[in-house]
Each structure stands twice: as C-alpha cells, then as structure tokens.
Amino acid sequence: MINHYQALLCTHYGDWRELEVTQLERLCLKPGEVRIRVRHAGVGFAVSLFVSGKYQRKPPLPFTPGTEAAGEILELGPDVTHLRVGQRVMAALDWGAFGQEVVTQADTVYGLPDNINLADAAALPITYGTVWSSLEWGASLNSGEILLVHGASGSLGMAAVQIGRLMGATVIATASTEAKREAALKNGAHYALTSDATHLVEEIKKLCPQGGVDVVFDPVGGDLFDASVRCCAPQSRMLVIGYAGGRIPEIKTNLLLVKNISLIGFNYGLYIGWGRTDARKKFAPLVRAMIDKLLTALSREEMPLPLTQRFAFSDWENAIDTTLSRRAIGKVILDLP
Ligand SMILES: NC(=O)c1ccc[n+]([C@@H]2O[C@H](COP(=O)([O-])OP(=O)(O)OC[C@H]3O[C@@H](n4cnc5c(N)ncnc54)[C@H](OP(=O)(O)O)[C@@H]3O)[C@@H](O)[C@H]2O)c1
After folding, report:
1. Which of 156, 142, 150 minimizes the C-alpha distance to 223?
2. Is the pTM of this model over 0.85?
3. Residues with CB under 6 A from ligand 1
C-alpha cells in the first residue's frame, strides 16, 4: 500500500477554484472505519457550498471534498465484519471522495454486485439513495400515480425520472433545453415540458385532465415550486428536495388545505449521519435495505444505468464547473488516477 495519495484539498473556506491538488499522508483506522481506494467520485451541486463553508454542515479544515465514491476496500477496522478487503464498494461519505483514498465509517459503505461498474456506482450512494428513499418513504409513490419531476436532466432529477418510472408512475419531466428534455424522455419520462413556470399549470392541465399530479419531486424551488402547487391533484404530495434555482419558496398554507396536499421536506443526510446528531447507525439497516433494492433493480436491468458525464481528475475544474453552470446532463463523475 502507498503511504501518500493524491487528493484535492480545501485549506480555507472560499471559492471552489482555490482547491489544490496535493499529496496527503495516510491516517490510521479507528474502530468502525474502512479505507477505500477511490476509483470514481460523484460531483454534486453542493460542492461549492461545502467548500465556501455555507453548507448546513461545515467540515473541519483542511478537508477533501466529495461525498460519493466507488472503489475497492483496502483495509478494515478490526470490528468491521460486513465488508472484506478487495471488495468493490460504493460509499456515502461525510467528505473525502476527491482523493485516491478515503477513510470512512463502514455504516454507509455498500458492497456492489459484479455487473455494476464502479463509474456508474459513484453516481448512486447519495443521489439515487435520496431519490429512492424520498419517493418511497417520503411521498409513498404508488404505481399508476402521476409524478412531476423538476430539473429532470440534473443528477437527482434524472434519477427521479428513472426510479419513478420503475415504481410504476407516469412521469412528467421539466427541463430547460431540448437536449435535456430528450435525455429525460430517453431515460423513462412519458412527457417532457419546458421549465417555464408561467406555462406549467396549463400544460399539466392538458396532460392530467383528471385533476393534476399526485407527487411533485422538486430539487429546483423558486417559481417552479410556486407553479407546482397549482398543478397538484387532491391528496397529492410535494417533496421539497433542494433549491438549485436559487430561491427558497414560501407558500400560503390555504393552498395545501383546500386540496389536502402534503408538503414533505426530505433530507437524506438525516439517514447517513449528516443530521444535528449522527444517526447513521440507527438508520443503517433501513438504508441498507433500500440500497439493496436499488442495486437489485440495476443489476437485473429493470431500470437504466445512471446517465453519467466523466472527467479525468486532472480536469477537476471543468467537472465542477460543468455541474455548477447547468451544462451537465445526468451525473458528473470524476475518475481518480
Ligand atoms: N434533500 C436532499 O437530501 C438532497 C440530496 C442531494 C442534493 N440535494 C439538493 O438538490 C438540488 C439539486 O441537486 P442536483 O445534484 O440534482 O443538481 P444538478 O445536477 O445541478 O441539477 C439541478 C437542476 O436544476 C435546474 N436548475 C434550475 N435553475 C438552476 C440554476 N439557477 N442553477 C443550476 N441548476 C438549475 C437545472 O435544470 P434545467 O437547466 O433543466 O432547469 C439542473 O439540471 C441541490 O439544491 C442539492 O443541494 C438535496
């Protein structure tokens, strides 16, 4: 094993372009931890917030960003029994994915079936975990219901299109460009609309003459959220997932009351140790069962593989910029050297 490894390092909270490629020394494992040789890392929208210190959790400096990784187990803490050295795994991390190695708690590390490649797996642990759990645990999406997905070409949105379709929903996607809408349709959406909030209500009325959509998956917020409330069927559920559009919406609750609409805030972080208190151990069996279902569906080819856009580690600035500047279609993946 090498004693040093290459990684991106955040030495001060600030602009993500000030990250530095550096050599880091290995840390010793503590009980409950594993060391992973990272082959691929998922790049998420939140990276700039993490690095600027504006995210809901602030890693201690210096730290390596990146919360989704796939690779092989190099070393196990003495008390870790559900994984083995050499095993192909994916992991939901606190931070550290943008480096050749990472040490993390074993509770959020998941073994992979042989037929799922590591580059695809790096898209899964948080992005697909968030989507599956929010649709199943949060919104209780039923087969035959209508699911409206905003930001449908983004990481979470594309996963919501694929998983919503797998769960038997009729999926209506919104996205800003023709290419993005095309990608959503290819990945399982039944319909794709522009993300122009001013026309959303009338477009949904045409597609849903019975009264509206049953579930809204909203990682964008802003005007799209406001318009979505008026697209909801009686007894529908709205998942508040994120604010990629930049504005946190506010709502008059009478709109919820008159149609028995449930507004559901959903933070996957709660289940993987990112809450005010670290509850990853408590939720590990629940999360593992959900990840098993996801991996089974993928390995049986019941749903498409994640749509990914890959970048070499040396091109990390381009990878992050593509994610943040709305150019990505699907999930951006960084390939570690
Ligand atoms: N709740 C949770 O547990 C959880 C978990 C992970 C991430 N998140 C949050 O979910 C949100 C989406 O994450 P993601 O990884 O899917 O992001 P992403 O891959 O960048 O996708 C976001 C989508 O939002 C749309 N968008 C609209 N206005 C935008 C703007 N001003 N800037 C950028 N995108 C804009 C874009 O689609 P169009 O161009 O088609 O409009 C884009 O495809 C983020 O706020 C993230 O922090 C929440």
Report:
1. 150
2. yes
3. 44-46, 126, 130, 151, 153-157, 175-176, 180, 195, 219-220, 241-246, 266-269, 323, 326, 328
